Every structure is written in C-alpha cells, then in structure tokens.
C-alpha cells in the first residue's frame, strides 16, 4: 500500500486508513488505486468479514487532490477513481465508514455505498460539485434522492449545503453521531467485529438482498455521471472554479 493509505487486519476486520494529514487526506490516484485493490482483494479473502474506511481523528477526507485532479484528470473505466467507485458499489462484504471532521465531495458520496456509517458530532459532509463547475458522481444523483427524497437531495447537490454529523444522522446519511475522536472508529470497529462473529453466508446474502437492483442501477448512473463529469472537467467553468480554488479567490463565470 502507498504510505498515504494504511491497512490493518484485526479479528476478521480490514481497516483502511487515509493517511495524508498534511493535505487533509485529499485523495490521489495512488490512494484510489490502493483503496480499489484492497477492497477488491477483501472480497476473495475468507479471513476478512468486513471493511472499515476511515481518516484521521480530525479529518475524513477533503475530496480529490485538486492539483492531481487538474494535472491528471481521471477518465475511462480503468482509471483509479472509477475502479474504486466500482469496488465500493459492488462490494459483497459489509463496508463501514468512520468519519471525523470534513468529508468533502467523494468523501460524502462514498458513504452512500457503505452499509454502516458512524460520524463525529463535528463531522462536516459536503458535496460542492456545482461550486466547481462539475456534476454529481459516484451514483449520488440516483442514490441521494432515493435515500433522502428529492428536496433534501437538491439542497445538498444544487446548493452544495454542508451537513453536520448530527444533522447527517437525523436525515439518514449516518447511523450514529458520536463525540469527535477515537470514539467514532471504536463504534465502527465494534459493529465490524459483531458482523465478523456472525455467519458469513447469511451476512453476504442479506447484503445482496438489501442492495438487490440498487447496485446495478447505481453502476449505470455512475457511468452516465462519469461521462458528464469528464466533459465538464475540460470546460471553462470547471477550469475557472478549480483555478480560483487554487489561487484562493472568488471565481468569475461567464454569462450563458
């Protein structure tokens, strides 16, 4: 694994820790590759019963590394980011997230594919795709309205509104909000270990039944989103938004 992605195996649980604290755990191509490979490998590893994804005690992830994003934009089904999204979409073993602090962009949309989500009171979930001249990704344009209803999904995707950990729990984006710090991971680990103690065949089938049809449609939507996302990323609005972000100024968009 890359130094920016740590792995730990314990009592049937694989924990994947985003470890790039100086960049608020912003995701690079190498980190996406590592996550995709680890989750895919876990599906064939009989010793692993559940997978936890977490960041640090102060930050889950600030989303895509903007510099990496601009210089080497992801495109095509074999790109690291798409391999990761496919891996979480079709994972047969339970995925559990432990979220402290910011969870921006894909840091929030990946949670829609998890089976259990534990957040800190100080967690801040945000999907600012429109702010960057982009569109929803990771199947979120299908999964979010299905989970929250159209109005709340529009609030989060069209306005890019930030949601606290407590609010995320209230509206159904998370299972439980806990005090910030290690308590979030410990809650995720306790659930993962409980899953690991249960009959694996029953767990696998139950997840399959819960997600019957959902994963397939999310995959189809993900492909459509990906085509639009790649096109928008090359457009003037996204270039201006991302450049303004790097230069720490307000973007200026041309009239249409």
Automatic annotation (TrEMBL):
Record-linked CDD domains:
crotonase-like (cd06558)
Q: Which UniProt keyword terms apply here?
A: Isomerase, Peroxisome
GO MF annotations, alphabetized:
delta(3)-delta(2)-enoyl-CoA isomerase activity
> InterPro entries of this UniProt entry?
ClpP/crotonase-like_dom_sf, ECH/Chromodomain_protein, Enoyl-CoA_hydra/iso
- Compartment annotation: Peroxisome
Matches recorded under SUPFAM superfamilies: ClpP/crotonase
The protein's matches in Pfam families, at most eight in alphabetical order, are given as: ECH_1 (PF00378)
- Primary location recorded for the protein, binned into one broad class: other
Mind telling me what this protein is named? Short chain enoyl-CoA hydratase
Natural source organism: Halopseudomonas salegens
């Amino acid at each position: 694994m890359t130094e920016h992605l740590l792995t730990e195996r314990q009592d049937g649980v694989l924990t994947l820790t985003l470890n790039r604290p100086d960049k608020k755990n912003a995701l690079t191509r190498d980190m996406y590759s590592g996550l995709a490979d680890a989750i895919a490998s876990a599906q064939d590893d009989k010793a692993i019963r559940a997978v936890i994804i977490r960041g640090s005690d102060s930050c889950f992830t600030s989303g895509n590394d903007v510099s990496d994003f601009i210089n080497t934009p992801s495109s095509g089904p074999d790109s690291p980011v798409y391999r990761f999204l496919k891996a979480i979409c079709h994972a047969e073993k339970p995925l559990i997230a432990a979220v402290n602090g910011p969870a921006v962009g894909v840091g929030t949309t990946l949670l829609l594919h998890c089976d259990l989500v534990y957040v800190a009171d100080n967690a801040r979930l945000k999907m600012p795709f429109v702010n960057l001249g982009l569109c929803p990704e990771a199947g979120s344009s299908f999964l979010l309205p299905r989970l929250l209803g159209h109005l709340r999904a529009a609030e989060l995707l069209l306005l890019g509104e930030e949601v606290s950990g407590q609010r995320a729990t209230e509206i159904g984006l998370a299972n439980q909000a806990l005090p910030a710090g290690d308590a979030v991971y410990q809650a995720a680990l306790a659930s993962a270990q409980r899953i690991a103690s249960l009959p694996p065949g029953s767990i696998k089938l139950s997840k399959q039944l819960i997600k019957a049809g959902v994963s397939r449609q999310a995959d189809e939507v993900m492909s459509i989103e990906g085509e639009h996302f790649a096109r928008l990323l090359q457009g003037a609005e996204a270039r201006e938004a991302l450049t303004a972000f790097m230069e720490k100024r307000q973007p200026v968009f041309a009239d249409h």
